[in-house]
């Protein structure tokens, strides 16, 4: 969203009808410090997901790691 605002001058994503905030979802699934945001690496570490061989802040690797985290949190008991 921030990138869209930067490059296009608006935070409205008219081409996206539904959006899932994975970061917020993950933070709600585990106890996490209020006022602090959980990063993708932290979520992966909490779930025991191996990040070796993945390059952070690269679209493909970040999306694959996000998918692994989402799956991990969905499979995990609350």
Structure overview:
The protein has 78 residues and is mostly helical. The chain has one domain. The chain has 4 helices and no strands. Helix 3 (40-47) crosses helix 4. The mean pLDDT is 86. InterPro entries: RNaseH-like_sf (IPR012337), RNaseH_sf (IPR036397).
Kindly report how far apart the N and C termini lie: 29 Å
Number of domains: 1
Shape: globular
Beta-strand content bin: under 5%
Discrete helix count: 4
- The helicity comes to 40-55%
What is the string of helix and strand elements?
Answer: HHHH
Tell me the total number of β-strands.
0
Topology overview:
Elements: H1 2-8, H2 22-29, H3 40-47, H4 59-75
Short description:
The protein has 78 residues and is mainly alpha-helical. It has one domain (2-75).
Record keyword descriptors for this entry:
mainly alpha, single chain, 78 residues
